[in-house]
Amino acid sequence: MPRYFFNVRHRPGPAGLAVDPEGEDCADLGAARENALSQARGMIARERHTFVRDWMECAFEIGDEAGELVLTVPFQDTVPDEDPG
Amino acid sequence: MPQPEQSSIRNHLLKALAPGDFALLQPHLQPVTTVLHQPLIEADVPIRQLYFPEVGFGSIVTHGADRKVEVGIVGREGLGGASPILLGTDRTPHEHFVQNAGMMLVIDTEALYAAVAESPRLHTLLLRSIQVQILQTAQTAFANASYTVDIRLARWLLMCHDRLDGDELLLTHEFLSMMLGVQRSSTTLAIQTLEGHRLIRARRGRITILDRAALVAVADDSYGLPEREFARLIKGA
Asked: Which one of B150, B183, B203 has the shortest CB-CB distance to A43?
């Protein structure tokens, strides 16, 4: 299984990215996205940080083993799209 | 290995015993080296041996449906297993394992029962150590209710530092998330916060305490209450 790194963007600039040095094995990028959304839900629901004012301004910047950014998952994506009908 | 002399003991509880009480336990103390993550007490299984940490420390965790969360740390200030055994039961739903490898002195449950039956003074001191353990768990509830994850991490690192030789802890973000009961990425964020303020240095798989005084300031009143009561009840005994 490929390993993905779940870096957390909490504000702009280099100091605004909490780098994940360990990563987690996920079946594919879709599974990595689900992992990010699941963690984001847990963090929004229960966890507070001194320097994070609004989870909805945060995003996961998922990297691959080569260190390339492969997917950005905004915490806002935990909110389901409004059902039009 | 021969039985240890009280003068060479590092466990604070054993050191605080009156010589006569130590003599009751001494023939039964068996030195055992420990390895990382070694089980010490299993959940819901009769406890045959208790442990006095000499070097390193243990972690107590509770099992949820799909995860474990730490509910206590037992280092040199304590006796692992004292709470179920001396409070009238032979087992606990919590699991104890080695969080920091080193050495401990183990004692058979029967030998401990015999010693406390002989010495009410020893019994009282061990009950006081259970009171300190209860206060520690209560303080964790207070910290979880009142403080952000980065401040809870500062407190947790101080509690480990108190029970550690040196300034370096070997652990992963995954493991830390179990200790703090938070998402793995919350640990990543909290580590970045403390490292950004130069309180710790984090490298893959290890955290080094750089500035203990500043960590104490950050931890605020989440840290210190059980530690003060330990000093009053055990060291001052």
From this structure: B183
pLDDT single digits (tens) B199-236: 999 998 999 999 999 999 999 999 999 999 999 999 87
Average pLDDT in chain B: 96
Residue-range definition of the domain harbouring residue A46: 3-78
Token pair recorded at residue B65: 């449906």
**How many Cβ contacts (< 8 angstroms) between chains A and B?**
63
CATH 1.10.10.10 given to domain B146-224: yes
Confidence (pTM): 0.95
For residue A68, give how far its alpha carbon lies from the nearest alpha carbon of chain B (Å): 19
**CA atoms in the 13 A half-sphere facing the CB of B84:** 23
Chain A neighbors of B148, CB-CB under 8 A: 48-50
Instruction: Say if the Cβ atoms of B149 and A48 lie within 8 Å.
Output: yes
Class of domain B6-143+229-235: mainly beta
Q: Report the pLDDT value the prediction gives residue A32, as an integer from 0 to 100.
A: 98
Q: B30: which residues sit within 8 A by CB, 6+ positions away?
A: B105, B106, B107
Mean pLDDT on B35-42: 96
Q: Which residues of B touch A (CB under 8 A)?
A: 148-151, 172-174, 182-186, 188-193, 196, 202-205
* Statement: residue A84 has pLDDT above 70: no
Dist. CA B133–CA A16, nearest whole Å: 38
pLDDT at B1 over 60: no
